[in-house]
Amino acid sequence: MRRLLTRISLLILLVLTTLLAVVLIPVDATDHFLLALIDKENRLQQLDSPKMIILGGSNTVFNIDSRRIADAMDYSVANLGMHAGLGLMLHLNQVRSYIRAGDMVVIMPEYAQFYRQLFFGGRTVTRLVMFYPQYFRYIINWRQYLEILKGLGLETRSKLVYLLGRSAYEETYRRSAFNEFGDLNPALIGDQPQEKLKYEHYEIRNLADINHAAVRELNKFYDYVGKRGARVYLAFPPVPLEKYAANRQEIEELETYLEDNLEIPVLYQPVEVLLPAKEFYDTFYHLNTLGREHYTHIFLNYFKR
């Protein structure tokens, strides 16, 4: 029995080693969307305090005007938002060493970050470290490793397709599409929704799927930031007005849960950031330039008050 277990363990180790070897083969993808995270972190490293650090998924790439925020609040702003699939845990690990007294961290998570295991990332993290292995240093939680392993096989298959010359890693947005603050260039978005938005599905998960560990990690981060003499806030993402009624119960249940369990102050209630569907772009998490202006105005009003 012991010999059988040893052989199984060696086989698993061999398979994982092979998959990792394929994934970590260097590729030329210097303008890939995910590699904009390097530029965002370089900016963060160069900013003096007080500064505002914005964290989130791709919603932050579309939804805020960091230049306008910087001008209005007299803060240097670094938008670190990138892709929901990276998970907020990676971003929390990434910014810790850059936080100084007087700084402000604003977390703008997609609702999905609070459910199941998205908070801890997945195969998108595998793709990031494939392009830039140095980001392994931000994978320090065992749940992050577990989620990466779950998607390793799929990512290996995609990598093989890429190596065979197919465009498995094509992205709509590119590293070069970001401005110096880390926002997506508004000229690429425009002020009209895309046609496919008409068929976009929008549904908030039930509270039964809540990720308690994610909230605990956010509370640990809140404690860390406070000890550094800085502040941290959470800002709910905009919700399409036309989809709110069908998701109201789930949103209110999440809001109540966070009131009871999350230590991070919340800037505004979800009902206060309802925006019409015409102000969204290609998904109901991405705003067009009209929605960006509207959401940024709401955001700034709360700090002015």
Description:
The protein is of the alpha/beta class. It has one domain (29-304): Rossmann fold, CATH 3.40.50. 45% of the residues lie in helices and 8% in strands. It contains 11 helices and 6 strands.
Brief rundown of the structure:
This protein has helices spanning 2-23, 36-46, 58-63, 66-73, 88-95, 123-131, 142-150, 152-163, 212-227, 241-261, 289-304, and strands spanning 51-56, 76-79, 104-108, 231-234, 239-240, 274-275. By secondary structure, the chain is α/β, with parallel strands linked by helices.
Report low-confidence residues grouped into runs of 5 or more: none
Helix content: 40-55%
Number of helices: 11
Strand segment count: 6
Average pLDDT: 90
**Computed CA radius of gyration, to the nearest angstrom:** 20 Å
Broad shape: globular
Per CATH, which architecture? 3-Layer(aba) Sandwich
CATH class: Alpha Beta
Order of helices and strands: HHEHHEHEHHHHEEHEH
Largest sheet: 4 strands, parallel
Strand content: 5-15%
- Strands of the largest sheet, in order across it? 2-1-3-4
Please outline the helices and strands.
Layout: H1 2-23, H2 36-46, E1 51-56, H3 58-63, H4 66-73, E2 76-79, H5 88-95, E3 104-108, H6 123-131, H7 142-150, H8 152-163, H9 212-227, E4 231-234, E5 239-240, H10 241-261, E6 274-275, H11 289-304
Parallel strand pairs: 1-2, 1-3, 3-4, 5-6
Keywords:
single chain; alpha/beta; Rossmann fold; two-stranded parallel sheet; 11 helices
